[in-house]
Amino acid sequence: MTTALITGATAGIGAAFARRLAADGYDLVLVARDAGRLREQATELHDRHGIEAEVLQADLSDDKGIGAVEERLGDRRRPVDLLVNNAGFGNKGRYLEVSMADELAMLKVHCEAVLRLTSAAAPAMRERGRGGIVNVASVAAFLPRGTYGASKAWVVQFSQGAAKDLAGSGVRLMALCPGFVRTEFHQRAGMGTDNIPGWMWLDADKLVGAALADLARGRTVSIPDPRYKVLMGAAKLAPRGLLGGISSRTGRKYGPQ
Predict the structure, then answer these.
(1) Residue 127: pLDDT above 90?
(2) Pair 91, 188: CB distance under 8 Å
(3) Any idea what DSSP says for residue 109?
(4) So which residues are the catalytic ones?
(5) Is pLDDT at 253 greater than 70 in this prediction?
(6) pTM, to two decimals
């Protein structure tokens, strides 16, 4: 049976990946901080789809949590065929308004955990000659948006570089760059969303379907919606100063997932 491990699995994009992969017949390793929600999710997916759903409680903002997931990914007796590095969060406020502890925690989750978990999963996948890794970034990676945008830009650059180095090994690696998605992301960060136009919101389930299709095509970066493809194309042509002004008024406050 094919197995997928998903971090940040209990809500939003992570939960959408879990639903889709369970429906496709994947066994799951569900990773998040809330053990109660993990158990409820695992039971529901098992009962609905007849798959095995393993629960792994871990906080990826500390070494112990990252280490526990690294250990599971390195278990050759129970191979993981697809890794989805989805865990992440936003901080409300501009640069210097957010505490250094919160900034460093973001870098731990968005960058160090992604690096370590990708590096824990890839060797076994390369040995078997197959496997996939999806690192969830954001369209914020392409805009000047402080620590959040910078951390997601790192995810994109790392994923593209690692994908190049793994080319021909049978291991596919992709950065997923969604825009605004209706999840718990903004609520947890204490961010308002009233000023975001309705057309900018994406459906998490449709997003996951598009992302998996892009992974199957061998793409290393996925912007899974035509609207955001157009916006990001326009962003490449816009002056950096204009982008910075737009970001300071909206992006840093609201932040796409």
Answers:
(1) yes
(2) no
(3) I
(4) 148
(5) no
(6) 0.87
